[in-house]
Amino acid sequence: xxxxxxxxxxxxxxxxxxxxxxxxxxxxxxxxxxxxxxxxxxxxxxxxxxxxxxxxxxxxxxxxxxxxxxxxxxxxxxxxxxxxxxxxxxxxxxxxxxxxxxxxxxxxxxxxxxxxxxxxxxxxxxxxxxxxxxxxxxxxxxxxxxxxxxxxxxxxxxxxxxxxxxxxxxxxxxxxxxxxxxxxxxxxxxxxxxxxxxxxxxxxxxxxxxxxxxxxxxxxxxxxxxxxxxxxxxxxxxxxxxxxxxxxxxxxxxxxxxxxxxxxxxxxxxxxxxxxxxxxxxx
Length: 283
Known about the structure:
Number of strands: 13
CATH class: Mainly Beta
Low-confidence stretches: 1-29, 257-272
CATH superfamily: Immunoglobulins
Number of helices: 5
Strand content: 35-45%
Distance between the termini: 85 Å
Radius of gyration: 26 Å
Number of domains: 1
CATH topology: Immunoglobulin-like
């Protein structure tokens, strides 16, 4: 074989190889996890007045990621005695662990002290690690409560109802604040209404007619959440007020329930989630 012919063959093979390599799909970029922790102070409301003292406290830690299937296991390490802690995959793109209830904030703080918290996720994607530094507590100084709580009991669910509540101002050391309002069926533990990520200045949520059923008991939760976001990590400091109510019959004559709020607003049509469901079932 002449040299020039050999060189031509080699050049052709190299060109084919380059085209073939270019045609191969490039490996997907690794999905990364974003760690979070939440400190939770829980109150119980039984009247129109704000509850005076907390009922219990709990802690949660976890991480979110972008694409379902990227990870199937995760662990959290931290300074507390329970470390490392296995996290559960509670949704397509979220790992979470929530502690048992603590009777005091100091007891919670002993189990989950200040320091570095790290979540490591493994699975289909390369291992991903996310860490945050927890140095202080930044709870709201305002206790959330339903201002027309007494009117919730017995209201006609065939009509819309405006739930009134107080507002709060996020602290100076946090990034932002949100109000969450959630209603779950007390028997099935299914969420039936939620108005989440409201402005902290919000003071009402409208439950549309026929959202709830008559003669049914529901749990509610009003949550004032202060949040400190650093990079892709989040530290939450939540003041949660829980309670329950029972709707009335489907046909009750008289004005729309929700006394104390503007009649014009009423005439115009006017979040505890996974942790509470899990612990109620465990009880």
